[in-house]
Amino acid sequence: MAKETTMHVVIPLDLKREFKSACVLEGVNMSQVVCELVQDWLEKRKTTPIVENQQSKD
């Protein structure tokens, strides 16, 4: 079994409530969904060119 750790994430309260409700309706664990989303994002990065964040400096 892979080692696990915790991660603190700051999101709007309404978004968390909606996410939690959706997970309950689907019968899935919030942590499992977050892990899947992170894995998907990492896989996407492997196939998509990295674009640097360009912020205007006004």
Features of the shown structure:
58 residues; mainly alpha; 2 helices
Account of the 3D structure:
The protein is an all-alpha fold and 58 residues long. The protein has a domain at 13-46. The protein is built from two helices and no strands. The longest helix is centred in the middle third of the chain and has 18 residues, at 30-47. The protein is extended. The N and C termini lie far apart (50 Å). The model has no long low-confidence stretch (mean pLDDT 90).
Radius of gyration over alpha carbons? 16 Å
Mean pLDDT: 90
Helicity level = 55-70%
- How many individual helices? 2
Distance between the termini: 50 Å
Main sheet attributes: strand count, strand direction, barrel closure:
none
Broad shape: extended
Beta strands, count: 0
